[in-house]
């Protein structure tokens, strides 16, 4: 049964990005606060400011204002963008090279600092260096079966470690010293400090695009065999039951308590609390789904959209209104980590009371008594 957990709201219309130039496609996105960056197939970066507006009726819309766009001077697509806001730097991957550019004016840093030979890269959101003026970057190198760790400063880069993998890596996520890697035939956890690795489960990267996503401290979300979204800790164990995706998921994101997945036709929303599918949104030609500081963004080749979560209290009230007491209580308990303690206690008492009356009206007196108590 469905829950209305998210609404899909347009953020950047195609005309704002490409006008009548049909050949322009969106390759990658990055969002940092109100700053939205888009990389395109014709080697441009676009910078927009996103303004969230709430109407008196509570309807949320987004107004995107274009700040500037910059041509990188190559005939290659911009394949990845990552913001390092502490350094006011944007890391741009284009033609196997990561360039540092200024987040405001999109100009390359004067020193020309760059990382060459990168297939793909990610940032360590749980850094080990403790230096606030540096970001830790992990790249899959063009060198076969090689991962490299870098420290990136405002105007220079420094290699820290080079690690060799048993098979060719094709996707990576980082937490502290731990790398979660999709190799050609399996997922592994690798501690790049000690060199100790642990096999997770088999996976064929030739058949499907692997998904490796850090979702919290020492925990990752992976696209497993049989269309399963699997959770794995750095110890190689799973503390949560898997969620059932379709076979052709191309992206996944976390917006607690939901796991959101994108395939070629739909956006699906599963609860991490009971693993049930809660919502399905038709969405054709989507190829990007990412979460940025709690904001979930999806994109087609031509437009960018934001998945706006409905307030958890509203979702709980909707469940109670349709007499889905168990689901409402599970969601209410799960909401504890998102709501201040005092506010939560008041809200939870009220929900227990409402649930008690629903059970009482259905002549389930023992259950009602427990809830009232």
UniProtKB/TrEMBL annotation:
Q: List GO BP terms, alphabetically.
A: autophagy; endosomal vesicle fusion; protein transport
* Keywords assigned by UniProt, alphabetized: Cytoplasm, Protein transport, Transport
Positions of the CNH domain: 23-296
- Cite a single Pfam family from the UniProt record: CNH
Instruction: Offer a single GO CC term for the protein.
Output: membrane
- State where the protein is found: Cytoplasm
Predominant subcellular localization, coarse grouping: cytoplasm
**This protein's name:** TGFA1 protein
Give the organism the record lists. Answer: Vireo altiloquus
State which gene encodes it. Tgfbrap1
């Amino acid at each position: 049964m469905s829950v209305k957990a998210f609404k899909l709201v347009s953020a950047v219309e195609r005309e704002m990005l490409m006008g009548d130039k049909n050949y322009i496609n969106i390759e990658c996105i990055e969002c940092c606060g109100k700053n939205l960056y888009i990389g395109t197939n014709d080697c441009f970066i676009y910078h927009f400011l996103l303004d969230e507006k709430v109407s008196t009726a509570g309807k949320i819309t987004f107004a995107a204002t274009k700040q500037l766009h910059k041509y990188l001077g190559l005939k290659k697509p911009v394949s990845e963008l990552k913001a390092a806001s502490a350094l006011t730097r944007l890391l741009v991957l284009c033609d196997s090279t990561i360039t540092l550019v200024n987040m405001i004016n999109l100009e390359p840093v004067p020193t020309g600092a760059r990382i060459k030979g990168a297939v793909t890269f990610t940032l360590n959101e749980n850094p080990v260096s403790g230096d606030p003026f540096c970001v830790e970057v992990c790249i899959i190198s063009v060198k076969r079966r090689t991962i490299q760790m870098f420290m990136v400063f405002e105007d220079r880069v420094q290699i820290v470690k080079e690690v060799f993998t048993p098979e060719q890596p094709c996707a990576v996520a980082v937490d502290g010293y731990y790398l979660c890697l999709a190799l050609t035939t399996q997922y592994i956890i690798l501690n790049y400090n000690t060199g100790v690795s642990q096999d997770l489960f088999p996976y064929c990267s030739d058949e499907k695009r692997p998904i490796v996503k850090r979702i919290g401290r020492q925990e990752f979300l992976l696209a497993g065999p049989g269309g399963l979204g699997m959770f794995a800790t750095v110890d190689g164990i799973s503390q949560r039951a898997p969620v059932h995706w379709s076979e052709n998921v191309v992206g996944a994101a976390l917006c607690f308590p939901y796991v959101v997945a994108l395939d070629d036709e739909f956006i699906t929303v599963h609860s991490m609390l009971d693993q049930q599918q809660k919502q399905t949104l038709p969405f054709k030609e989507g190829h990007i789904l990412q979460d940025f500081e709690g904001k979930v963004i999806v994109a087609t080749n031509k437009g960018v959209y934001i998945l706006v979560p409905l307030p958890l209290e509203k979702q709980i009230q909707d469940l109670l209104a349709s007499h889905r007491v168990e689901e409402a209580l599970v969601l209410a308990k799960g909401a504890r980590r998102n709501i201040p303690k005092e506010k939560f206690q008041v809200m939870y008492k009220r929900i227990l009371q409402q649930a008690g009356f629903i059970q009482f009206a259905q002549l389930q007196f023992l259950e009602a008594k427990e809830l009232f108590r």
